[in-house]
Amino acid sequence: MSGALEHRDVRLAVGADPGHLSPEVEAHLAGCAECRRFRDETLALDGRLRAALELPLPEFRRRVTPVRRYALAASVVLALLVAGGAWLFRPSSALAGEVAAHVQEEPDSWNGRDPMPDATIAKVLETAGVEFDARLPVVYAYPCPFRGGRIAHLVVQTAHGPLTVLLLPHVNVTRREKFSEDGLHGLLLPAGSGGVAVLDRDGTVDATEADAMVSAVRWEK
Amino acid sequence: MNPPPGGTSAAAPFSRLLEMLRPDLLRFAFWLARDRSVAEDVVQETLIRAWKSKDELKDPAAARPWLFTIVRREHARLYERKRLPTVDVEEVEALGDPALASDGDAGLTDLRRAIMQLPDEYREPLVLQVLGGFTTAEIAGELALTQAAVLTRLFRARNRLRVIYGLAPAEDVE
């Protein structure tokens, strides 16, 4: 039935919403090879379109974009802390999983070799509201969103290889917890009113090194 | 660790819901802003707004469109508040943003760049439809347009992408 609808009407309908076609459009398609081909091409395009829109999220954190990362106003940070309150009290085992998942989302963070500029590290620490012993060789630093607040995501070079150190000023860690999650080994440690997560991808975290990381932290209050 | 006084039994499912939907919120925010840093800020503020307004969400099945709507508003609000410069598409292309890359599938990368270059008026309804799962009527409500206008914009968006995809474009509609 090619009489009820014009080809252009059918192509408008197909081009606008190929997955939801009216019975009239379907009837036209049944009798019109050209429009049917247009429909098939559009459906194929839509499959690719869906894949294109589903961006690979790990890419989102692979590059530090300056300035805007640090542009959150103090009021927004406060709101983050308040609104994120419900997250703060979740079981530590859940925290271990979230910490490991967070680190896995930034695989390139492990690859740094050269120490980051002091100014960059300072800005990251300032954003997270924390101080960290600047003498440790930090090769990666990023102020990541986590549980409704900002944390300092650092990678520190040690004699045994890189260690990821997450400074969690707004996450209340009440006890020491060793974990292995998602191919990573780590320790969660209480530190002041917050916590520190230390992770290694090659083996169990050395407790002495982890304690050294905690002693290098001071929360800004 | 013990839960806080008052417990988190009601909050936990909502929290999980936000975590589950966060990836698509981030993608949607990226396609709106075309800037990863802005997208992250938009989503962060969206989650805060959602948390504060969680009682407004009566049906968890409606969480996705509800959150997408908040992302749109936060995106607009962020630009209004911070007066951020709009993203120059040529600059985005020149940067070769790795977020657009697809391992071993150059066609997908090209398609992503083509989506980036669509005018906002075409890109936004298309992303709402394909990524957000909005119906054309819902998009019309969201963008304060007639449904006919939405159909035209969606048609034109796909028509432009057809060319990138190596297909002949259809005759334009008025």
The helix fraction of chain A, in percent, is 25-40%
- Can you write the helix and strand succession of chain A as a string? HHHHHHHEEEEEEEHE
Fraction of helical residues of chain B: 55-70%
Give the H and E element order of chain B. HHHHHHHH
Strand residue percentage of chain A: 15-25%
- Number of E-type strands of chain B: 0
Assign the CATH topology of the largest domain in chain B.
Rna Polymerase Sigma Factor, Chain: A
Radius of gyration of chain B, whole Å: 18 Å
How is the secondary structure organized here?
The complex is a heterodimer of chains A (221) and B (174).
Chain A: H1 7-16, H2 23-30, H3 33-53, H4 74-83, H5 85-88, H6 92-104, H7 118-128, E1 130-132, E2 138-146, E3 149-158, E4 161-168, E5 177-181, E6 184-191, E7 194-200, H8 207-215, E8 217-219
Antiparallel strand pairs in A: 1-8, 2-3, 3-4, 4-7, 5-6, 6-7
Helix pairs in contact in A: 1-3
Chain B: H1 11-33, H2 36-52, H3 63-82, H4 89-95, H5 106-117, H6 120-130, H7 136-143, H8 147-164
Q: Overview of this structure, please?
A:
The complex is a heterodimer of chains A (221) and B (174). Chain A is of the alpha+beta class. Chain A folds into two domains: 7-53, no CATH class; 57-219, no CATH class. Helices cover 39% and strands 24% of the residues of chain A. In chain A, the strands form two sheets. A six-stranded antiparallel β-sheet of chain A has the order 2-3-4-7-6-5. In chain A, strands 1-8 form a two-stranded antiparallel ribbon. In chain A, strand 2 and strand 3 form a beta hairpin. In chain A, helix 1 packs parallel to helix 3. With 174 residues, chain B is an all-alpha fold. Chain B folds into two domains: 10-85, Rna Polymerase Sigma Factor, Chain: A, CATH 1.10.1740; 101-167, Winged helix-like DNA-binding domain superfamily/Winged helix DNA-binding domain (Arc Repressor Mutant, subunit A, Orthogonal Bundle). Helices cover 67% and strands 0% of the residues of chain B. Chain B is built from eight helices and no strands. Chain B has helices at 11-33, 36-52, 63-82, 89-95, 106-117, 120-130, 136-143, 147-164. The longest helix of chain B is centred in the first third of the chain and has 23 residues, at 11-33. Classes of the chains: A alpha+beta (221), B mainly alpha (174). The interface between A and B is large, with 51 and 60 residues.
